[in-house]
Amino acid sequence: RKVIKGGSWKDIARFLQTDAIDYEYKDRARSYIGFRCVMPHIGEEPSNK
Q1: Which of 21, 22, 32, 38 is the most exposed place for a label (fewest CB within 10 A)?
Q2: Total domains present in the chain
Q3: DSSP collapsed to 3 states, the chain
């Protein structure tokens, strides 16, 4: 089995916490298991107001 941490687009709010842990079989592919890529927004600099 593999450990699944955090939540996905299909989960309810309590599973979206970073400390949420679940398990899945290693030989199973799921559309909701993967990783997230995060990058800063490209565009205007934020105002200091």
Answers
A1: 38
A2: 1
A3: CEEEECCCCCCCHHHHCCCCEEEECCCCCCCCCCCCCCCCCCCCCCCCC
Distance of CA 19 to CAs 3, 8, 28, 32, Å? 12, 13, 23, 17
pLDDT of 12-46, one tens digit each? 888 878 788 888 898 988 888 877 777 787 777 76
Reading the block at residue 7, the tokens are: 């939540």
| CA–CA dist 46, 34 (Å, integer) | 31
pTM above 0.70, yes or no: no
